[in-house]
Amino acid sequence: MPEHLGLYPHWYVPAIGSAWVMGIIGTIHVLASHTSVGASWLFALLETKAVRENKPELMEYIKKYGMFLLVFSYIIGSITGPGIWYSVTVASPRGISGLIHNFVWVWATEWVFFFVEVIGVYALVYLLGKIDPRTHLKLTWSFAVASWATMILIVPILSFMMWPGNERWYETGSTFDAAFNLNYFAHLGVRTAFMFAIAGAVGGILAATMKNREVRIEITRFLSKMGLAGLFLGVVMWLWYLQTLPENARIVMETQMAPKYGPFLAAVLLGTLLYFLWTAWKPLQLRQGVAVAMTVVIALFGLWPEERSRESLRKPYVAGQYIYSNQLFARDVPGKGVTSDLPMIEAKGVLQTHMFVPADLRTVTPENKVRAGEFLTKTLCTNCHSIEPDAKLRALPARFGFSDDPVMVKAYLDGALYHGTVPYMPRLPLPEAEREAMAAYIASLSKGAAPMLAAHDALQQGAH
Ligand code: HEC
Q1: Of 384, 421, 444, which is best to mutate to test ligand 1, by the most ligand atoms within 8 angstroms of its C-beta?
Q2: Residue-number span of the structural domain to which 361 is assigned
Q3: Among 132, 301, 402, 408, which residue is least crowded by beta carbons within 10 Å?
């Protein structure tokens, strides 16, 4: 057994938790990156048409959209990409370390393709009209392939976070066993399909500004078809994806998602579907503002819930079904030389073994009890729960019915948490004194929060 827990100091963000910080940055990044990958395919397909049917006027649009991508997608993508790295490194250091130890070469390869992609978009925009059309077309196809390659290479990492889906990886620790996990292809399918819909919606922002009437009609219809194809394929892929999820994800889906969540997503899909049908039918009615609004709707009501639910479905793990969201190793992974932290916690507790515990909190005393409890709660719970009574991210006081009775809170820590009977939460076999300290702290959060109980009960029917 190692001497210490390999934990870093924790990063607590009031009210929304570090999880939402990552989620917000991630959603913006997904919008930018999926737009650009989808648009690269739109360019390749549209330019092929332009060359075959000798319609150079279509190139005007590609130039506009390419420039738009350069200014928006690539700049926003390049800011939020490192933003994800910064935020996950502080929020989930062991999660990201686990991913790096599996996928470092996959990431390196992805960056090579990303590099090609960035050069590609510049070349595409600035060489248009300066080189012969067939050569330019080859360049555009290279750009499309390189763009999609970045997605092909990043999705194994994202889908491994859900789970490897096979026992083999835990023994071998092999990158291939990790990458070709059970839900890889379905996940890739979902993103590939929906990227067409996203690029189709964003594309409308520029299509609406085209001067030439015929070109405007032709392009808007092209975008509509692409969007519709993306939506249909996306729904099929999504249904397949649901079949590849682990048991704990099914339980979270069945018990924790608000009942209106399914119909809500269906409504967003239906709305997008109607939008594309309308733009196919009446392409000249599409105004720039409407296309902008549609993009915002997709981001807020499509991508945000999707990223959030993918995060929720993984619970209690952050990656590979062996690292809990609170960074503890939940099981042995011989293939990576990883041993479970739980036996150490059970034997010695967290305060004795965590490297970054303030010296006066190493042992729980009546004087430091609440502060020790605060340290433990922030370390062990706040990756998934915020602590303010009215906070957004699964506020802890509400989860305990705003109880300010330490005995009641402790009963939960002694039972469900100690034995790990809740499928979406980590098992935490803490020593008696640490459970008592946590109970004292958690109960103290609800002091004076009783009025909230009534408001909370009224809201219970709604979302989580
Ligand atoms: C891996 C993420 C995760 C961690 C870490 C976590 N929880 Fe939870 N917890 C959840 C989820 C998910 C739910 C269910 C959704 C909800 O209630 O909004 C939940 C629900 C609860 C509930 C409601 C009762 C229940 O069984 O559904 C309590 C109480 C609770 N958590 C306490 C804690 C405490 C105390 C800690 C820290 C020791 C903790 N949780 C750590 C994810 C987590």
Answers
A1: 384
A2: 341-459
A3: 132
352 & 276 share domain: no
- Ligand 1 pocket, residue 256 CB under 6 Å: yes
DSSP 170: H
Task: Measure the CA–CA gap between 351 and 380, rounded to whole angstroms.
Answer: 11
Q: Ligand 1: which residue has its CA nearest to atom 18? A: 394
- Label residue 448 left, alpha or beta by phi (over 0 means left) and psi (-120 to 50 means alpha): left
- In the chain the first and final C-alpha atoms are separated, in Å, by 39
Task: Say yes or no: 346 and 439 in one domain.
Answer: yes
CB 57 within 8 A of CB 218: no
Token pair recorded at residue 209: 């500004």
Q: Which residue has the tokens 């939020």?
A: 80
pTM over 0.85: yes
CA 384–ligand 1 middle distance (angstroms): 7
CA of 425 to the centre of ligand 1 (A): 6
**Is residue 319 domain-shared with residue 356, that is, in the same domain?**
no
- Please check whether residues 319 and 351 belong to one and the same domain: no
Residue 324 DSSP class? E
**pLDDT tens, the chain, 464 aa long:** 577 899 999 999 988 888 889 989 998 998 899 899 999 999 999 999 999 999 988 999 999 999 999 988 899 999 999 999 999 999 999 999 999 999 999 999 999 999 999 999 999 999 998 999 999 999 999 999 999 999 999 999 999 998 888 889 999 999 999 998 888 999 999 999 999 999 999 999 998 888 889 999 999 999 999 999 999 999 999 999 988 888 888 888 777 666 677 788 888 899 999 999 999 998 888 888 888 888 888 888 888 887 777 778 888 999 999 999 999 999 999 999 999 999 999 999 999 999 999 999 999 999 999 999 999 999 999 988 999 888 878 889 999 999 889 999 999 999 999 998 888 899 999 999 999 999 999 999 988 765 555 565 555 544 44
Claim to verify: residue 55 and residue 204 sit in the same structural domain: yes
Domain count, the chain: 2
Task: State in Å: Cα 385 to ligand 1 middle.
Answer: 7
For residue 64, count other CB atoms closer than 10 A to its CB: 18
**Pocket mutation for ligand 1, best pick of 252, 392, 425 (most atoms within 8 Å of C-beta):** 425
